[in-house]
Amino acid sequence: MIRIVAAKDFTPVSAVDQSYEKERDIVLDMINQIRQHGDAALQAFTRRFDGVDLTDFRIPQHVYAAAYQQVTPQFTEALREAIQNIRRYHEAQRRQSYMLLDEHGTTLGQLIRPLQRVGVYVPGGTAAYPSTVLMNVIPAQVAGVPEIVVVTPPDKEGNVHPGVLVALQELGIQEAYRVGGAQAVAALAYGTESIRPVDKIVGPGNIYVALAKQAVFGKVSIESIAGPSDILVVADDTADPEYVAADLLSQAEHGELSQAILVTPSSRLAEQTAYALEQQLARLPRQEIAAASIRNRGAIIITSDLAEAIEMANRIAPEHLELIVEEPDPWLARIVNAGAIFVGTYSTEPVGDYFCGTNHVLPTEGTARFSSPLNVDDFLKKTSLVRYSKTALLQHGEKIIALAESEGLEAHANAVRIRLQKEDDKL
Questions:
Q1: What pLDDT score does 16 carry?
Q2: What is the rounded CA–CA span in Å between residue 208 and residue 28?
Q3: Is residue 161 domain-shared with residue 200, that is, in the same domain?
Q4: Which family does it belong to (predicted)?
Q5: How far is residue 117 from each of residues 146, 150, 373, measured CA to CA in Å?
Q6: Mode of pairing for the β-strands spanning 259-264 and 230-235
Q7: What's the confidence (pLDDT) of residue 124?
Q8: Structural domain boundaries enclosing 278
Q9: Exactly one of 90, 161, 320, 360 is catalytic; which is it?
Q10: How many domains does the chain have?
Q11: What is the pLDDT of residue 332?
């Protein structure tokens, strides 16, 4: 089912490349409806797309306690430990404001402050993603964001999945709403009677959510426009083909446009992994989705050596890169384009998705060439501070005037010149 090709013959199959003009028009109309009609439009869209008639979107407080009775103690215990791991990892990313003082008494600095209000979109409805809550909320909390609001689609009874509710409760999120889709993004960006607007929107969603985030960018900040998930495994002859196949399928089951690629100099590993894929696919509940992903965008690329495999990985710039080779450290230093790198046999990608502490919101579709995982910096803003001394202005004022005049900005030059003249008159 999966194609096996030599590196020289590999041509990547990109995700469906289309303008989404029809979907974009729908989203823009929905955003305008929310801006004009507020909660009334939210109610209409929730009735239309989620099949439930809600008049109060805020998740009632009493449902949080009840949610603990609907999940297993093992889930709650694992969730709490994951929270500790994720928080510890992100606390190491904290930055501090700084000041630079020179001999003339001038102070230059950078003030680092959290955003004041952030919206987190958590997909829902037919699926549940408590891990999305953790990965988006925790770095915002570590950054010091005082107001974090979560939106998530309700099911047809107007309920939210208990796993998501428990995650919200464990993180102390008090403001959460049963609303999803492009209408939720619009409400976060522009506000309604029930939902106050935010400064930034983070979190994954379907194409309508992605297009809505793109449309409101500029009114608010966003972290990224996420594409289909992908994984690339670089492995040598020492890798276990069953492990490799399982890791490829861990991303293939996300969706038919997900991409799973093995790059290896070992023909034996290539053939055995292809066989293991067939065997494991037959047992997957999401077999049809994973099979379509493997068939349409999956590949096993055979290279001449590991150096070529690393070169191929850097060219593809995967969201997740697994390095399963006998001596990984020398090769690790040569990887420059990857959202996250998982080193060794036991660093399977789901470890990062759920538990170890790194963030699973990663750059997709080759954007790891210039983008980073979601992190604490995404919830901070930097402000420059200038306290220029009289001594410094007198010493450098003429230089500033010369630069301003070279650009034809006489008022800029005059703002400095008038100070120099007044100081000169005092003498």
A1: 58
A2: 10
A3: yes
A4: Belongs to the histidinol dehydrogenase family.
A5: 7, 11, 21
A6: parallel
A7: 87
A8: 4-16+228-370
A9: 320
A10: 3
A11: 96
Percent of the chain with pLDDT over 90: 94
Catalytic-residue membership of 242:
no
For the CA atoms of 248, 249, 250, 256, the dihedral, rounded to the nearest 10 degrees, stands at: 110
| 294, part of any domain | yes
- pLDDT value of position 209: 96
Which of 197, 222, 247 represents a domain boundary (last residue)? 222
Same domain, 157 and 248: no
User: Is residue 278 annotated as part of the catalytic site, yes or no?
Assistant: no
Provide the annotated binding site for NAD(+). 121, 183, 206
- Tell me, rounded to whole angstroms, the distance of Cα 394 from its chain centroid: 48
Does residue 381 fall inside a structural domain? Answer: no
- Binding-site residues sit at 121, 183, 206, 229, 251, 254, 320, 353, 407, 412
Residues 136 and 277 in one domain: no
Q: Please tell me which residue in 170, 223, 253, 319 is annotated as part of the active site.
A: 319
pLDDT tens digits, 349-408: 999 999 999 999 999 999 999 999 999 999 999 999 999 999 999 999 999 999 999 999
Low-confidence ranges of the chain (pLDDT < 50): none
In this structure, the answer to whether residues 89 and 121 fall within a common structural domain is: yes
Model confidence over 279-338: pLDDT tens digits? 999 999 999 999 999 999 999 999 999 999 999 999 999 999 999 999 999 999 999 999
DSSP state of 378: G
Kindly state whether residues 76 and 138 are assigned to the same domain: yes
